[in-house]
Amino acid sequence: MSSKLVVGNWKMYPTLSDSLILASTFKRSLEDIQGVEVVLAPPTAWLVPIVESWRHKPQHVSLAAQNVWPNDQGAYTGEVSAYMLKNIVQYAIVGHSERRAYAGEDNDLVHQKMQACLQWGIKPILCVGENKKMIDAQGNFDDYQLSKVTEQLLEGIAAAKQDNFDKVTVAYEPVWAISANQSATVATPEYTLQVISKLKERLIEKFGAGPSQLVRFIYGGSITSSTATDFFRHPEIEGALVGGASVKAQDFLKVCQIAAKTS
Ligand code: 13P
What's the 222 CA to ligand 1 centre distance in angstroms? Predict the structure, then answer.
């Protein structure tokens, strides 16, 4: 079985000094946690100070951008392109639900961002997810919600050539399960497995089994060290995109340890 991928999306939580402390703690502690691939996504402005503070980093630890702009250079105030980030990050989060909601990103822009990442050697982490629960208590799917998530997936991934599918990670993040602190609103591993299985079916219908099996699927939404084991024990869930818990050093390191043990 291949290593799990654990991505820490620091969102807009840590200041520069918080970020440097987190980055140095993770660098030191992750040396001892092998058998897991870890990606840290700090706020864009802190990427370069982190790279400079690290000098060397463990091979299994990489950096990600939380967002990129698709054009290489030009009059795009406030944006940073995949081209500009290409030697700084190895991964980029693309189409996060918070960007879809607050920055009006649509599938077309996400497609362009995917293309730019792949063009410049950045591995995209394509986020997809429904706003409302799509499986009811009887196990029936809400076709509308499923079709919206399928569109996000197929339009995003169509930016990749099929022999590039091994560079694409799909982060299934049900929007209703993000930053949820009451267990009733957190997605279960069983729910996640059912959705991932449907999405894989759609991928196979469109692109065939060979390329589709190269795409990695991870889960995101209120993952902590208390819930990680339940998700990671399923081989179909190949990792996690962690938000709030990724800026709590000890909790995140525990998630990485659990991932290493279940790989
Ligand atoms: P939380 O782990 O805080 O729910 O965030 C999930 C997420 O959006 C990661 O990208």
Answer: 6
Question: What residue ranges of the chain have pLDDT lower than 70?
Answer: 1, 181-184
> In testing the pocket of ligand 1, which one of 13, 100, 126, 173 has its CB within 8 Å of the most ligand atoms?
173
Buried b (16+ CB within 10 A) or exposed e, 20-37: bebbeebbebbeebeebb
CA 81 to ligand 1 center in whole angstroms: 23
The domain of 210 spans 4-262
Q: Could you give the CA distance from residue 136 to residue 238 in angstroms, rounded to a whole number? A: 25
pLDDT tens-digit readout, 246-261: 999 999 999 999 999 9
Number of domains in the chain: 1
Give the domain CATH number at 229.
3.20.20.70
pLDDT reported for residue 182: 61
Let me know if 173 is a catalytic residue: yes
pLDDT in tens, 182-205: 656 789 999 999 999 999 999 999
96 is catalytic: yes
Residues forming a β-bridge with 40: 8, 63
Pocket of ligand 1 (CB under 6 A): 9, 96, 173, 178-179, 220-223, 241-245
